[in-house]
Amino acid sequence: MKIAVLCITSYSDRPEAETFIGLRKAGVDIEVMCPSSTPHNVRLKEGEVPVIDLSPKGRVDFAAIRIIRDRLKGKRYDILHTFNNRALSNGILASCGVPVKIVAYRGIVGNVSFFNPGSWLTYLNPRVDRIVCVANAVRDYLLSMRFLWLRIPREKVITIYKGHDLAWYRDQPADLSGFDIPPDAFVVGCVANMRPRKGIDVLIKSAEWLPEDAPVHFLLVGNMESKKLRRKIAASPFADRIHIAGFRTDAPALMASCDLFVLPALRREGLPKGVIEAMAYGTPPV
Predict the structure, then answer these.
(1) Per-residue burial over 104-123, b = 16 or more CB atoms within 10 Å of its CB, e = otherwise
(2) What is the second-level CATH architecture of the domain 168-280?
(3) Tell me: the pLDDT tens digits for 164-183?
């Protein structure tokens, strides 16, 4: 009998999508619930992985809970595999009374606490059977948590690194001339979404230590919609050499054209995809 797995995610990156496809090819009866706008939905469908449109609006979304529960009640699943906080909390609530094993994915360090009620609705919930961590740093943090007799059982937490196939990274390096970057410039690339812990403002501040005539340009890829960040860029002596590309599906090819990749994260990183993608193209990461 095939193992039946229902996965719930919000943004299926390439390693995640290829894992789903690989499990399907290996004979696992796998289905994926995710937003219809997920970048690799087409790839999932090409791999004959059934995709159900689902976009939870919060950690407790009654509409999403109803959709998940209807799915769980309509078919016997062995595993409910969730890939973020919203998927996990809504999945736990939807699975009440349903005999399904719950597996949770955790990709960052921190932000789980015995004193946080939200954590009891997610990773600390007794209904969770396994927590798959993307790196040992994430696992070590969860196992280090202590309060009186409370702790996460060691056997519940495991590490599985996301795999990358170098064959995914054979696109030609992107042309940066569209960003007004001269061909002889030394280009520092960064792929991230603007959050305080990502340290993008630190990267901008670091430019002040460079000679003003240094032929250095910065290429920022990802969601950088922050007025505070824009003000910092405007005040930088390198303002005209800091280029914001926004969200791009060709981010790896853009980083392939850079001389250096920088991820200035301040805390909580697990296994940054951008670092691996840069290395796959031979761009040294910092």
Answers:
(1) bbbbbbeebeeeeeebebbb
(2) 3-Layer(aba) Sandwich (3.40)
(3) 999 999 999 999 999 999 99
